[in-house]
Structures are given as structure tokens and as C-alpha cells.
Amino acid sequence: MMETIKGFKDDFLWGGATAANQIEGAFDEDGKGLSAADFVEYIPKEQRTKDNHMEVTSDVIKKALAGEYSGRFPKREGIDFYHTYKEDIKLFAEMGFTAFRLSIHWSRIFPNGYDAEPNEAGLKHYDEVFKELRKYNIEPVVTLSHYETPYGLIEKYNGWVGRECIEHFVTYAETVFNRYKGQVKYWITFNEINIINISPFTGGGVLSDLEENPEEAAYQALHHQFVASSLATKKLKEIDPEAQMGCMLARMLSYPNTCHPEDVRKAQVDNQLNLMYTDVHARGEYPNFFKRHLAENNITIQMEDGDLAVLKQYPVDYISFSYYMTLLSSAAPEGEVTAGNLMNSLKNPYLESSDWGWQIDPLGLRTLLNDMWDRYQKPLFIVENGLGAYDKVEEGRIHDSYRIDYLKRHIEQMKEAVKDGVDLMGYLAWGPIDLVSMSTSEMSKRYGFIYVDKDDDGRGTGERIRKDSFDWYKEVIATNGENL
């Protein structure tokens, strides 16, 4: 008799996710070098354009290095997690976290990215962070590169356009694998690797204004990251066979705008192009539809002998992804456009939107979990999902019922997917503590269960305050998702 799946497995991983460049601060302490994130300026909403809020030009970097910029670079400050990690991890433990996703700042370990020897002070810092997590039996989920390309590699090679970055990344990976063997079970190579084709500077430290063919340069950089990911996976298996390597995708599920066959086909293509990245990571080869896409767009990727064999031989163990919204695909787009997770899309009239225009679609999570499980038959891991919203402090409390509602509805659909038979490893809510927004460098776009007293201009005490969602999520974890 077949057994029916009733809910999350007993070892399901519950917790939250962050990135070093959005929380740590201390950008120039203890030998740390500059990274791509340190050049992303805060631009007020009214001055923000598609071209200036994420992409950085060589001119901006020159002015920043010369001290000619009067603006702020909030990711240099973060929320001071570098100094407050013990207090913050204690709060995560109070919620009952069994896992916490963080990234290692590559330029804390190799200040320029290509240094001959690692920075011991940086390695010791993460020794202490992992020690603190172990104290509370919280499993670290560690991203090697989360939008933190060392500036030295940008200056020398224009980031990942340079094939030399592969060797330097593998050296970095090997260093931390050896150092933290037995302390970290779950690794991820590149955060949201597909973002390199949306924002090349964010995803790969690529200054597009220096490239004759920016689109081709981004794909070349992506290929180098794929090879580096596979070689890092090879190293991990040699150094710590018990550990697992995952990839990470910004999953953008696309629906056809209408039932017109051309819209249906456009949605299929958009979904194929989004899943191409996990195709390479999980299946170990470029899919044929992508080869046609490159040819039709006159894009040539330079590969060396052995590259494709490496991709095939060292696929990832699991697939992790972020999920915030769904998109609409149209062969002839007309109508109202809404903002999204680094993307713009036609507005879906059946969905509500967040304060930032991101359309909220809990059922879409169940749909894509089933699609991805059917496609790959590899364990899946939701390592980012959350609601960026304006929070108000009222008599020392933050009543964020809207966040609870958002998360509750997504977890309900996640549970349905598990009942459908999807092998799901865990759920890590994005930004368990308020942090600097990746896309806008704001503090006012808050995700956390923990409020941080700091505004968009960097003012505030930094005090941590539990929101209503803090106690709610604590109950969710304690009941393994049964009490929502």
C-alpha cells in the first residue's frame, strides 16, 4: 500500500537567509578588501532609473576611489552584523532556527581576490560565526559568492569576463572548504547566478561600459562561473565528501498573458531561459534551446577543451532558489507594467502587489516546485522568500500582520507541494533581520522578523526589536509548519 505524504519531514530546515554585503558592514576592517557591493550607491527613489540603481560604471568607481562621490554606499555599513553577530544569532536561536544562510565575503578572505595567501583575520571571523551557530545547533548554509566579487578582480580582469577568475575562485573555495571542513554541510557556489545577464556588475563584477559587446561579455562571464562552480564542487567532494554543493537561481516563473498560442510559446521560452542555469548546474550541459538562442543572437562563448566535460562530471547535489513573484509573458506586450525582482512584467490583474510593486503569488510557488521537481528529480531548497514592506514602530512594537499573511500563504502552498511528492529540503525566509536592500540599497524595504533601527540615510541606533512575525515564525518552526 502506498504511503501518503502528510507534511514536512522531521529534518526539514527552517530559518532565514542573508548576504555578507547586506548585513556585515566593517567594509575596511581586519584586512578586508573592497568588493563590487562597496561601489553601489544609495539613490533616492525619485532619482532612480533603470540604468543607475544597480549597474555601476567605470566612471562611478573612479570617482568613488578618488573620494569625489558625496553620496552613501550603504552596503559598506550593512547592519553591523560583523560586530553584533552573537546577539543576532541568539535572536535567531530564540526563534528556533535550525538553519541560517549566510555568505562569506570573498574579499575578507582574499582582499584582492587573487592574493597569494588568505587573510587570517577574515578566516578567524567566520570561525567564530560558525562556532556561534553550532552553539545553538543552527546549520550554516554558506554561499561562496553572493554579489561580492572582489574589486581587485574587477580592476584586473573586468570581473568574471576574465577566465583567470576561475582559478582564483577555486583557490578561495578550496581554502574555505579546508578551513571549515566538518563545520559546514551545505554550500552554494553563486547566488542567483542568472542575475549576471540582468545586471552584469551585480552578478559578476562586469563593467559593461568597458565591453564592446556587453551582452556577449555577460554570457562569457556566466560560462566562467559555470566552470568555476563545477571545479569548486570537485574540490568539495575531495576535501569533505560528507558536505553537499548546491546552485542557486532567481526563479522567475512566467505565465502566458493570454491563451493565444504565441503567448503560450513566449512563456515557454521565458521559462526555458530561466531554467537554463539550473539545467547546466544539475544536468551538466547546455540545453539545445540555449545553443539556438545564442546563435540567433550572434553570441559566441569562448570555451577551452575540457570545459564541457567538467560541467558534465561535477553537477550539484541540490538546487536552491529564491522566489518572490511570477511574471506574465506576451508576444505583443501591451498594458500596465509592474516592477519586480530585477524584472519588469505586465501586471497580472488576479494578483495583489507589495509596497514595491512585486506581485504576490503563493500558488505560483507550488506550481514551480512541482515543475522543478519533475524536471530535475534533485532535492529542492527554498533559500529566499519574503515580503519587503514599510514597517511602523508603534509604542515599541511592529505589528506586521501583512508579513505573517504573506509567509503563511506561501508556506501553505509549499506544504501542498511536499504532499504532491516534491523533495523539499527546507525554507529560509529572506532577511530574518532587516538589512540593506540588494536592488535599491534601502533600509526602508524591510523583510525581517527583527526590526533594525536604521533609516535610508544611515541614521538610527541600530537597536534590534522583535516584530509580531518573530513570535509567529517561532511557532511555525516549533510545530514543523503545522501551526500557521
From TrEMBL:
Pfam family membership, one: Glyco_hydro_1
GO molecular function, one term: hydrolase activity
Active site location: 384 (nucleophile)
Keyword Transmembrane in record: no
Keyword Transmembrane helix carried by entry: no
Keywords tagged on the record: Glycosidase, Hydrolase
SUPFAM superfamilies in UniProt: (Trans)glycosidases (SSF51445)
Entry superkingdom: Bacteria
PROSITE patterns according to UniProt: GLYCOSYL_HYDROL_F1_1 (PS00572), GLYCOSYL_HYDROL_F1_2 (PS00653)
InterPro entries, alphabetized: GH (IPR017853), GH_1_N_CS (IPR033132), Glyco_hydro_1 (IPR001360), Glyco_hydro_1_AS (IPR018120)
Annotated family: Belongs to the glycosyl hydrolase 1 family.
Protein name: Glycoside hydrolase family 1 protein
UniProt organism field: Macrococcus equipercicus
Lineage, uppermost ranks: Bacteria, Bacillati, Bacillota, Bacilli, Bacillales
